[in-house]
Design a protein that fits this description.
The protein is α/β, with parallel strands linked by helices. It has helices spanning 2-10, 13-24, 32-40, 72-82, 99-107, 118-131, 167-171; strands at residues 61-64, 67-69, 89-93, 110-115, 136-140, 153-158, 173-184, 189-197, 200-209. The chain has a seven-stranded mixed β-sheet. Strands 1-2 form a two-stranded antiparallel sheet. Bound molecules: S-adenosyl-L-homocysteine.
């Protein structure tokens, strides 16, 4: 496994370094651990074969079943906002390709990620295992309800657009924890960052974004 990871680190590394410099740092993301994690994850291994040549473009890409791997800059903004520590347990909603989960897995102790489309959940779990990430657990289900079994989480990242903040996610957030979530209409959302502190929630906005919808009980109802 160590040999697999060492080889993957070298694959298309120059393109990742250029992506970080010209798409991410240039737009103001400077969180060092986030940049280091992005440099380590071979994004081209998470996109369909036919799109691999575009893997390091400044754009989101379709990964099948209605899922979209976010633009690298947006992945960086969300990861830096969450800023997981090495000992943290974090939750991601919307596994998709597993790319964002792999980046979180570089930073946190363990990542639980929930995906509603079973084919995506299966493929992402297989991919992450094959690429050597042993600290990601993929669950199939409705992530608008969070994942209560392993709560609380030091960080929760929602990779799909929600009409409101799902109450379960706030309940499953640890004291001092952060929730990063795009909230708005199906057409456009605001990226919100909540921090739980002494029973209150601090809230800030990280800008306008566009995600695929969170479909489920506390998300969009089709
Ligand atoms: N983070 C992913 C991109 C996710 S795209 C990556 O890095 O590739 C959004 C994903 O959210 C899609 O895969 C979609 O199927 C999933 N999704 C939508 N509603 C969901 C829900 N209620 N629970 C879990 N996953 C959901």
């Amino acid at each position: 496994m160590i040999a697999v990871r060492a080889r993957l680190l070298r694959e298309r590394r120059a393109e990742r370094i250029a992506m970080i410099r010209y798409q991410i740092v240039s737009r103001g993301v400077s969180h060092r651990r986030t940049l280091a994690a992005i440099a380590k994850v071979p994004r081209h291994r998470f996109v369909p074969e036919a799109l691999r040549h575009q893997a390091y473009d400044d754009a989101p890409l379709p990964v099948g079943h209605g899922a979209t791997i976010s633009q690298p800059y947006i992945v960086a903004v969300m990861t830096a906002a969450l800023a997981p520590r090495r000992c943290d347990r974090v939750l991601e909603i919307g596994t998709g390709s597993g790319y964002q989960a792999a980046i979180l897995a570089e930073l946190a102790a363990v990542v639980h990620t929930v995906e509603r489309v079973s084919a995506l959940a299966r493929e992402a779990a297989d991919r992450l295992a094959a690429l050597g990430w042993a600290n990601v657990v993929v669950h199939e289900g409705d992530g608008s309800l969070g994942f209560a079994e392993c709560a609380p989480y030091a960080g929760i990242l929602v990779a799909a657009a929600s009409p409101d903040v799902p109450p379960a996610l706030l309940e499953q957030l640890a004291e001092g924890g952060r929730l990063v979530i795009p909230v708005g209409s199906r057409a456009e959302q605001e990226l919100l960052v909540f921090t739980r502190r002494d029973g209150t929630l601090e809230r800030r906005s990280a800008g306008a974004v566009r995600f695929v919808p969170l479909l489920g009980e506390a998300g969009f109802r089709r």
